[in-house]
Amino acid sequence: MAEKKLKKAENGLTISVEMPSDINAQYENESLTLKKGDKEIDRKIHPSIKVNIQGNLINMSTQRNRKIERRLMGTLEAHLKNMIKGLDENFMYKLQVVNVHFPMTVNVDKEKNEFVVNNFLGEKKDRRIKLVPGVQVKVIKDVVEITSHDIEKAGQAATNIEKGTKVRKRDRRVYQDGIFIIEKPGRSYL
């Protein structure tokens, strides 16, 4: 598991994150790439943070020790932990298909990489929601499972599907149809 060591330098901050030995890290052009087997996750790093990779340690430092740098370093540390965890196991989001008035059907068009919602609120035209590349979507009865090794891609795909079935110009107390996130990594809403 990733461990952090926060040190105050003379003027700036330094954080070291330890990676497992089977993960390769590369940093160039303000972009950090972690690879394990065929999985790869890439993240842009803020220009004020300097990154140095030594063996299985990722050392990050800033020149100043202000509130903004402490926040950036904390955020980057959380992102690195998610990246390392995602290379070992996939992140999963679950969504519930809810229909009160009209029976809605959902499926995945793999050729066009789209999520298709048929008969949403009785609409004749299908709603097509673009999926993020690198995300696997399974439909099991009225539950949609989204998995990916990149937590941001999985979360973005789940959010796109939820927003794609938002009810507009109708009373939400009556029209409660839609597709809603019911479970995400570390949190369940049921």
Give me the secondary-structure topology.
Blueprint: E1 4-8, E2 13-18, E3 24-28, E4 31-36, E5 39-44, E6 50-54, E7 57-61, H1 67-88, E8 91-98, E9 105-109, E10 114-118, E11 127-130, E12 136-140, E13 143-148, H2 151-164, E14 178-184, E15 187-188
Antiparallel strand pairs: 1-2, 2-7, 3-4, 4-5, 6-7, 8-13, 8-14, 9-10, 10-11, 12-13, 14-15
Short summary:
The chain is α+β, with helices and mostly antiparallel strands and 190 residues long. The protein has two domains: 4-88, Outer Surface Protein A, domain 3 (Alpha-Beta Complex), CATH 3.90.930.12; 91-188, Ribosomal protein L6 (Outer Surface Protein A, domain 3, Alpha-Beta Complex). The protein has helices spanning 67-88, 151-164, and strands at 4-8, 13-18, 24-28, 31-36, 39-44, 50-54, 57-61, 91-98, 105-109, 114-118, 127-130, 136-140, 143-148, 178-184, 187-188.
Structure characterization notes:
With 190 residues, the protein is of the alpha+beta class. The chain has two domains: 4-88, Ribosomal protein L6 (Outer Surface Protein A, domain 3); 91-188, Outer Surface Protein A, domain 3 (Alpha-Beta Complex), CATH 3.90.930. Helices cover 19% and strands 42% of the residues. The chain has helices spanning 67-88, 151-164, and strands spanning 4-8, 13-18, 24-28, 31-36, 39-44, 50-54, 57-61, 91-98, 105-109, 114-118, 127-130, 136-140, 143-148, 178-184, 187-188. β12 (136-140) and β13 (143-148) form a beta hairpin. The protein starts with a strand and ends with a strand.
